[in-house]
Design brief:
Length: 407
């Protein structure tokens, strides 16, 4: 074999193994940022998973791109199908939204009653593999879960008003929480959000601080905090962010097409006619030709909620405006190799965690966007590190609460 062929193959193997797969990178404990309060140190003592190395799946788990891509395309390997009860609620504008309640499959170690109020990521619902996996794992640890299904995300639940979910609308989540509080009055609540859902729960807690009295803690997983900044970042080609943006826009467009009749078709016209109002004027061609989330927001979303501009819409939706008013324990979890949310733009959680005595900003070296796969050489465990970290942190909060009650 020619020497140049051998050298070329060796270089290719090196690039794949070292540069793309990162096989030579060492695993490390997460980087933790907090205000160094006694409360946080007690939480970390009770939650060792946050101070121990996260070891991703061996062959590809050190690649943020592969973590993110496999999460997006597969979700979780061998994901279970937990059985829940679907609840339906009609909002004042006629929108029909659903959420699902999943009862625990085992008793909690403390014997207490705990309910996780969960908001999934963009265009997601309780039927997505990563959500199903988290539900089943949390159930097995003694938790009840109430999981929001974003408007328009379920093919079996048609829209009944001309709007779909937005990045920061907390109205549906508020109804979910009120339902849980009324139905399970003795249950202790935990607020959890994934990606866009994390933006919603932090905004929900901060925009009306009295709501925090109902919760033990909050957990924000893989969110970008400031939507205005995120829109600029997602148009950068660095680390393929523009490609990710395009793929998310296409995913959104599939939901828009499925619901187009009620959004801007004959059903929408009938809706506005019944209310003696003029329909919102959309350029449907521009909507359908959108290649980024920003384009969709310009041509559809900000008009749908009757915001003056995209800029105003993003400010209205962002949790960064409200996070400083969150005083209950809050875990902010991101991955350094989440290329959708580059670390250099995460000044909001850094600033907040440095000042808030009950907050922890946890940044893992690996994990991608909502990946956090672990175990195995090629095929990872079904339950992710993220699932275990969320439950571990929540149990630490519960343990600390029990100690405080005893003393």
């Amino acid at each position: 074999m020619e020497a140049w062929v051998i050298v070329s193959v060796a270089v290719l193997v090196y690039v794949i193994a070292v540069k793309f797969l990162g096989l030579t990178e060492k695993t490390e404990p997460p980087s933790l940022l907090h205000a160094n309060s006694k409360f946080v140190h007690r939480i970390l003592q009770a939650c060792p998973i946050l101070t121990e190395p996260y070891v991703p799946t061996f062959l590809w788990g050190r690649s943020g791109h592969l973590q993110t891509t496999i999460y997006a395309k597969i979700g979780r390997f061998s994901a279970p199908w937990p059985t829940g009860e679907r609840c339906t609620h009609v909002m004042p504008d006629g929108a029909t939204f659903t959420f699902d309640i999943f009862e625990p499959t085992a008793s909690h170690s403390t014997g207490g009653d705990f309910t996780m109020c969960v908001v999934p990521g963009i265009a997601n619902n309780s039927e997505k593999a990563y959500v199903r996996t988290f539900i089943a794992f949390a159930q097995s640890q003694g938790f009840r879960l109430a999981v929001l299904n974003h408007l328009g995300s379920l093919p079996t639940v048609p829209l009944t008003s001309p709007r779909i979910f937005t990045y920061g609308d907390t109205d549906e989540y508020s109804v979910l929480v009120d339902h849980v509080r009324e139905r399970f009055p003795s249950s202790h609540l935990i607020s959890i959000g994934f990606s866009m859902g994390a933006n919603i729960i932090v905004k929900y807690l901060g925009e009306r601080p009295k709501r925090q009295d109902w919760f033990l803690c909050g957990l924000s997983i893989c969110q970008g905090y400031d939507i205005t900044k995120a829109t600029y970042v997602l148009h950068e080609w660095e680390n393929c962010r523009r490609l990710y943006n395009f793929m998310m826009a296409q995913n959104m467009l599939s939901e828009i097409r499925r619901n187009s009749g009620m959004l801007f078709g004959e059903q929408a016209k009938a809706y506005w006619r019944d209310r003696e109002s003029d329909p919102i004027a959309y350029n449907i061609d521009q909507i359908m030709n959108s290649t980024s989330l920003v384009h969709l927001d310009e041509h559809l979303t900000h008009k749908m909620v009757r915001s003056n501009s995209c800029e105003d819409f993003y400010k209205e939706c962002s949790s960064s405006v409200h996070i400083d008013k969150v005083h209950i324990p809050l875990l902010l979890l991101n991955a350094a190799d989440d290329h959708l949310i580059p670390v250099r733009h995460n000044d909001t959680p850094v600033r907040y965690a440095q000042r808030a005595p009950n907050a922890i900003y946890c940044l893992t070296k690996h994990g991608g966007h909502l990946g956090f796969f672990e175990g195995g050489f090629l095929v990872p465990n079904t339950v992710s590190w993220m699932d275990k970290a969320v439950v571990g942190y929540t149990n630490a909060i519960i343990e600390l609460k029990e100690v405080c009650l005893e003393t």
